[in-house]
Specification:
The chain is α/β, with parallel strands linked by helices and 734 residues long. The protein is built from 25 helices and 29 strands. The protein has 4 domains: 230 residues, Glycogen Phosphorylase B (Rossmann fold, 3-Layer(aba) Sandwich); 210 residues, Glycogen Phosphorylase B (Rossmann fold, 3-Layer(aba) Sandwich), CATH 3.40.50.2000; 172 residues, HAD superfamily/HAD-like (Rossmann fold, 3-Layer(aba) Sandwich), CATH 3.40.50; 71 residues, Trehalose-6-phosphate phosphatase related protein, domain 2 (Alpha-Beta Plaits). The strands form 5 sheets. A 9-stranded mixed sheet has the order 5-4-1-6-7-8-11-10-9, with helices on both faces. The protein has an 8-stranded mixed sheet with strand order 22-21-20-19-18-27-28-29, with helices on both faces. A 6-stranded parallel sheet has the order 14-13-12-15-16-17, with helices on both faces. Strand 20 and strand 21 form a beta hairpin. The two termini are 46 Å apart. The chain binds the ligand O=P(O)(O)OC[C@H]1O[C@H](O[C@H]2O[C@H](CO)[C@@H](O)[C@H](O)[C@H]2O)[C@H](O)[C@@H](O)[C@@H]1O and uridine-5'-diphosphate (UDP). Uridine-5'-diphosphate (UDP) binds next to helix 1, strand 12 and helix 14. GO terms for molecular function: alpha,alpha-trehalose-phosphate synthase (UDP-forming) activity; trehalose-phosphatase activity.
């Protein structure tokens, strides 16, 4: 039976050695708590790190470790102290975490930790590959494992791989600073589906892919040479019923409240003071220090609330080997001390501060007892605490104040949304929350709860998995038109038997890959020799048919006596002959069009004009991809209006718009060339829209092949120029 394999750095359970035995506690953090509910209800396995390094586990406890993980349907990945130092405390949490949360000043670029990240991702890959069975689906989680999808795909192209990023994906301007940006993107693109919490993270990612890797991106799909990767946003939900039911139970036993007991014990004797809750891992991205300062500002701005409110702050220890986290701990300790010292009275402590993690029951106690939740991350992928707080408000009373920088804010507009850097706004939101009429609280929470209940963690996971399975259909479509070996064999059989054969070969993007400067794309010796060999075979004709100007083509192929067709059919050099125009064409329109193209060149950095005898081409391969596409469609529209009166055509090539006489195109050129001749084998290969004319106009028995995965009228497609070379080699030896 096929299964789902979840992979994340941290397993849902953390192992510790207590009195020479293995003790398991639940992991904290949104990923583990959220995915736990998904895993619990599946028949799959979860692969990850136990929290203990190889060195920490004595030989006699190794079986116990395996036993403890198996019980939870988990498989451990064994990591050394050195791995954890370089991979977890190093690259994951000193490079990626700060960079992706826009803390560039905290970001370290260390080659050693990058190498450790690569090594550990490989270790994960080995364990995953050992556990994959046919039909399994893979779901990789988070920033610690961004190389894993490609490592798995390389060995197991047959399995569907999903990846979900739980933290923000930053803007291209930030991401581009990473020295290993290409490796990270290529690692992620091993997936079939990549999910983010919000549309903003999704578009940042797509923009980085198209700018850095220059892959074709259309809407939410990235076209690779042999696959399509789908990218979408799926805001993670919570196990709503677990939280609301636990809260209802807790409400029913009111006297069980720890906080209440604390008040009863007269640790603090202002029982009517409103409780303001704050819960996070102690992480600089969570804005904890700013939150305390904003609270101080609030008490100063609205002194009437002294002794009427209390900030209950739970900070969960996290990544304490990283210096920034140690500094933050010190800063928070000092701030809490200073503010309590500044405002406290005999009967009132303004901040109750807990530095530890709490078991589920105590969390529920905090959630249900506090009238206000104040969550002010500077950046946060989602923030599940915000959702959990709302889910536990069984009587629908309570107010959530939430930073607009948390992914959750996008779905929780009924909360009081604040900018975490704006103390004025936070202070006012606190006042508004404390004074908010109950009816309004209920109204807001009603909407929030309805949404959270509907789009819970189960729905989120199902949506993701359904989309992942859908990507399998896309792969099937791709497979259907990709030239198979048997189809290739059949083609070469026809070639062998044919008594008169012709091959139309497009040049750029087909015989030769694209380069930034088109003049640098001259044919290599190997290619020249291959073409010559095919041409020298009996009854075989090779035609290079290109949009290039005749001088360039003529110079490159001067020693090979094949037919050349230049400028999409304007010029032809027959075997052993001289260049001649094929039609009577005008070029007086160029003086009108050139200034328009020049305007576009001036406004669009990286673009240039190529001037041929009967056409003008505007190249935008080196422009910013988005801007290039936008300007190309703008220019296309301008030219279409102009062309209506001038019989001009606009050819939409691969990152080039070519303006020429509308009656000229490769389809017409090939039709004219074969007219009246009885070729028993016809072959055409090309990569862009200008080649579609040949695919459409050649007779049905022609073998037409598109290079690269795109919509096409050709019968087959092959992945890239390397595959084209393979085909040429076969023609040469058949
Ligand atoms: O494993 P740790 O280093 O102890 O860190 C705990 C987890 O923190 C991060 O959580 C994120 O995931 C949440 C759920 O999607 C999201 O709400 C939150 O905004 C994120 O910060 C981290 O992404 C996990 O990998 C860590 O395990
Ligand atoms: O003592 C604690 C405090 C918090 N949490 C859980 O930790 C998660 C925090 O997730 P969030 O998305 O808010 O932030 P993250 O820590 O993942 O960045 C929530 O599910 C909390 O219920 C926990 O298990 N124990």
């Amino acid at each position: 039976m096929s299964k789902t394999i979840i992979i994340s750095n941290r397993l849902p359970l953390q192992l510790q050695i207590d009195n020479k035995t293995i003790k398991a506690t639940p992991s904290v953090g949104g990923l583990a708590t959220g995915m736990k509910s998904v895993h619990r209800d599946s028949n799959g396995i979860w692969i990850g790190w136990t929290g203990l390094t190889e060195e920490e586990i004595p030989a006699d406890l190794r079986d116990e470790v395996v036993e403890a993980t198996i019980q939870e349907q988990c498989v451990p990945v064994s990591l050394t102290e050195e791995d954890i130092e370089g991979f977890y405390y190093g690259f994951s949490n000193r490079t990626i975490w700060p960079l992706f949360h826009y803390f560039m000043e905290y970001t370290e670029f260390e080659k050693e930790s990058w190498q450790s990240y690569v090594t550990v991702n490989q270790k994960y890959a080995e364990v995953v590959l050992d556990n994959i069975e046919e039909g399994d689906t893979i779901w990789v989680h988070d920033y610690q494992l961004m190389l894993l999808p490609a490592l798995i795909k390389k060995e197991r192209p047959d399995v569907q791989i999903g990846f979900f990023l739980h933290i923000p994906f930053p803007s291209y301007e930030v991401f581009r600073t990473l020295p290993w940006r290409e490796e990270i993107l290529k690692g992620l693109l091993g997936s079939d589906l990549i999910g983010f919490h919000t549309y903003d993270y999704q578009r940042h990612f797509l923009s980085s892919v198209s700018r850095i890797l220059r892959n074709e991106v259309s809407f939410n799909e990235i076209t690779l040479k042999d696959r399509i990767v789908t990218v979408n946003s799926y805001p993670m939900g919570i196990d709503y019923n677990k939280f609301s039911e636990a809260a209802a139970k807790h409400d029913a036993a009111k006297n069980q409240s720890e906080l209440q007991r604390r008040l009863d014990l007269h640790i603090d004797s202002t029982p009517d003071a409103k409780m303001i809750l704050s819960i996070d891992r102690l992480d600089y991205s969570k804005g904890i220090a700013n939150r305390i300062r904003a609270y101080e500002y609030f008490l100063e701005k609205y002194p009437e609330f002294k002794e009427k409110v209390r900030l209950v702050m739970l900070a969960v220890p996290s990544r304490s080997n990283v210096p920034q986290y140690q500094l933050l701990k010190k800063e928070v300790d000092e701030l809490v001390g200073r503010i309590n010292g500044k405002f406290a009275s005999v009967s009132w402590t303004p901040i109750w501060y807990f530095y530890r993690s709490m078991p589920f029951e105590n969390l529920i106690d905090l959630y249900t007892t506090c009238e206000v939740a104040l969550l002010t991350p500077i950046r946060d992928g989602m923030n599940l605490v915000a959702k959990e707080y709302v889910a536990t408000r069984t009587d629908k009373k309570g107010v959530l104040i939430l930073s607009e920088m948390a992914g959750a804010a996008q779905e929780m507009s009924e909360a009081l949304i604040i900018n975490p850097n704006n103390f004025e706004e936070i202070a006012d939101a606190l006042k508004q929350a404390i004074e908010m009429p109950e009816a309004e609280q209920i109204k807001r929470n009603k909407f929030l709860q309805k949404r959270l209940k509907r789009y819970n963690v189960e729905k989120w996971a199902n949506d993701f998995m359904t989309s992942l399975r859908d990507t399998a259909h896309k792969s099937d479509i791709v497979k259907a038109i990709r030239m198979r070996t048997d189809q290739e064999d059949e083609m070469f059989e026809t070639y062998k038997k044919a008594d008169k054969r012709i091959l139309f070969l497009d040049y750029d993007g087909t015989l030769r890959g694209f380069v930034n400067n088109p003049e640098d794309a001259s044919p290599d010796d190997d290619l020249i020799e291959l073409v010559r060999t095919i041409h020298n075979q009996d009854n075989t004709e090779v035609v290079i048919i290109s949009g290039r100007d005749r001088h360039t083509l003529g110079t490159w192929w001067q020693d090979v006596p094949i037919t050349l067709i230049a400028e999409h059919g304007v010029w032809k050099r027959p075997v052993g002959g001289e260049w001649a125009v094929t039609e009577n064409l005008k070029n007086d329109w160029m003086d009108t069009v050139r200034p328009i193209l020049e305007q576009f060149v001036d406004r669009t950095a990286g673009t240039f004009i190529e001037e041929k005898n009967y056409s003008l081409a505007w190249h935008y391969r080196n422009a910013d991809p988005d801007l290039g596409e936008k300007r190309a469609s703008e220019l296309s529209n301008v030219l279409k209006e102009l062309s209506a009166n001038n019989e001009l055509g606009v050819l939409d090539g691969n990152k080039v718009l070519e303006i020429k006489d509308s009656t000229i195109h490769k389809g017409k050129a090939v039709t004219k060339h074969i007219f009246g001749k009885d070729y028993s084998f016809k072959f055409a290969i090309g990569d862009d829209w200008t080649d579609e004319y040949m695919f459409q106009d050649l007779p049905d028995d022609a073998f037409t092949i598109k290079v690269g995965l795109q919509k096409t009228a050709a019968k087959y497609y092959v992945d890239d120029t390397d595959r084209v070379r393979d085909l040429l080699k076969k023609f040469a030896t058949t």
